[in-house]
Every structure is written in structure tokens, then in C-alpha cells.
Amino acid sequence: MGDTDMGDSTSPLMLRRRLRTELRTARLDSNLTQEQVAKAMEWSMSKMNRIEKAKSGISANDLKMLLPLYGITDKARAEELVALAREARESPWWNRYKGVAPEKLLELIDYESAASAVSQFEPMFVPGILQTEEYARAVLQVHYDEKSAAERLAAMVDLRTRRRGLLTRENAPHFAYVLDEPVINRVVGSSAVMSRQFQHLANLAKLPNVTIQVVPFTAGLHPGMKGPFEVVQFADTPDENIVFLEGPRGDFISEDPEETENYLEAFKRITEASLGPSDSVKRLLQAADEMT
User: What CATH number should be reported for the domain holding residue 219?
Assistant: First the structure.
């Protein structure tokens, strides 16, 4: 699991989305309905929907039978699509953390890998993807404090560190983060750990696709008071945007367009109550100095 894994801009979900776009276009060009295709292929409508929503891949054998139905008979074109289908079914790097990391977190990373934009509000801790290794270790230690969980703790810290590569890979999404001021005031690990973490945030904010803002206490009440959330957007299909919600009973991913739109609007309002990006960086650097 080298760092080059993180630089791969063609995640399985991204490839599935690319393939489904090709197949959906071909189906429509052939004047076929989903029902007609499902019947001809002897598929359930559930399977048909999952393929066209990029929820699951399609096997090379299924695709070879589907292409003639769609009028795709050119050998080179068919081979190109079959190769894409095979690549889209390969396991991504984060699958190696199955059984260690929460299932919904790995699902979220899958979505992030194919996103055009990610907007996250965090009221308690620095978002996982922005955490330094020592900050991540201090946060995760609270959850896995038994000696028997030392290996799991190390794997989770490793996952958070590797996930950070999504920020700088080729064709990376635009990441917008808003931190409530308690994030800056809560000491995690030690003052020295906090100081280095704030410096790290200030450095990440220099990336062209990363924006980090802080909501000051003086902003008063705002829509983020209900809890942390993350909206993942897709430029090609806004109706497939998702929202990731963390809660005491576990994490939840909603695909409801109205709900994701509500959270996007809430994020916009929180952003308007925040310090601007440059003032936010100044606040983080000030906090770093105060912690030393």
C-alpha cells in the first residue's frame, strides 16, 4: 500500500460512473428501456438500476452479451469497454481496511474518490482527512483504548494518513472545510500536538483545491449546531449527491436529493457566518502560537 495508491485518479467508482454513462447513452440511442434490457439479459430491475447508478460493476461476460443488444459491434470499441469494466471491478486501496474501519467510512471514501466537490462541517474535532498522524492517534485512542486494540488503532491511523492523498491527487475534488471554534479550543493530545496540527491546517489551506474556514464564537448560533456533516457532490449528476452524517448510534449516508440540498444550503449559511479563508488561516496560526 504505497503512497502511489493514493495518487490514482481513476478510482473504481469513478470508472463505474464512466462506464455506466457510456452504457446508458448506448441504451438510449438504441431506444431501449431499462425494463426491456433487464428482460433480455434476464436480470432483476434491481441489478439493472445498480449498474446504471454505478452502485455495482458489471462482469466482463455480462457486458459482452449486453453490447450487441446496444448495437455496439465494433471490436475495438467493445474491447475498450470490457477493459473498463474489468478495471472498475478491481478492489480499491481502502478495501484493505475492511473489518477494521467502519463500513460507512469506507463507503464515504469511495464517494470522495469520484467527487467533484466535498463540503464538510465539523464542530468537535479536526476532520479525519486533515488530521496529523499524532492528532489522529490521540482522537482514535479514545475509541480503542484496550491493549488488544493496538493493531486496530495503528490501522485506523494509517487509513487516515493515506486518505489524505485524496487532497493532492490528480483531478482532486474541491474540498471545503468549516471548523467550529471549539475545535481550536479543545486540546487533543497535548498543546504541542495541537500547535503542529494548526500549522498543518494552515499549510493544507495553501492547496488550490482546499478551503478551510473557522466559525468564531461571536457568530452565535448557526445551522451547524445540530452536528457534523459532509456533502459529496458530483458535477455530472447533482441528483446523486450524498450527505454523510455522524451520530452516537453510528454513521449514516443519505442519497435523498432534498436532504442533500438542505445540507448544502446549511453549509452555505455556516460559511457565511465564518471568518474568510485568509482570516481563518490567521486564526489557526494564532492558535498555533498560543499553544507553544
Answer: 3.30.870
